[in-house]
Write a structure and sequence with these properties.
By secondary structure, the chain is of the alpha+beta class. It has one domain (23-163). The protein has helices at residues 2-16, 57-77, 90-93, 123-129, 143-148; strands at 22-24, 34-37, 51-53, 97-105, 111-119, 149-155, 160-163. Strands 1, 2, 3, 4, 5, 6 and 7 form a 7-stranded mixed beta sheet that branches. The protein starts with a helix and ends with a strand. The model is unreliable at 1-18 (pLDDT under 50).
Length: 164
């Protein structure tokens, strides 16, 4: 029986190894952890013009660099944002936010990343509300989600950042 279980587990790993979400730690950028969601991870909505792809840890590092350098500009130029005050230290401001990275390719072949920032400053509330962070793209409605999550769309090839 043990042998059958080991064989089954081995076959399972062979067929699902590439579709697993990848938990990463990037202490240079933030305190918590990030999740690189696989191309088969659950997302509560679909973007028809984009094809889902897997991302690497290097892609996540590139996302973080673009985000840190362009956050203020992206917020200032978005017409949906009112009364924005520039953040002097973006890294410090978002240091306790966990991340989700979701990869796409657009019709031009450019690599697009949806970055989901989830506030873990109030750890107990965050753990309750962001319950499947490691397996599903987190999206919610109501006061908690409005105050504790923010999404950005990045083009890694053009190195641009927009509020999603």
């Amino acid at each position: 029986m043990k042998i059958l279980l080991i064989i089954f587990f081995g076959i399972y790993l062979c067929f699902t190894g590439n579709s697993q979400n990848n938990l990463i730690k990037l202490p240079k950028y933030y305190k918590g952890y990030g999740v690189i969601l696989s191309d088969s991870a659950y997302v509560p909505y679909q973007i028809d013009t984009l094809k889902r792809i897997d991302l690497s840890t290097d892609d996540a590092k590139s996302v973080e660099n673009i985000f840190l350098n362009q956050y203020n500009k992206a917020m200032q130029t978005d017409s949906r944002v009112f009364d924005f005050k520039s953040v002097k230290n973006v890294k410090k401001y978002f240091f306790k936010y966990n991340r989700q990275y979701l990869g796409f390719r657009n019709s031009k072949g450019e690599k697009i990343v949806l970055l989901n920032l989830l506030n873990f400053k109030q750890c107990k509330k965050a753990r309750i509300n962001f319950i499947d962070l490691e397996t599903k793209y987190m999206r919610g409605f109501g006061k908690f989600y409005e105050e504790n999550s923010i999404e950005f769309l990045l083009n890694l090839d053009l190195k641009t950042l927009k509020l999603f």
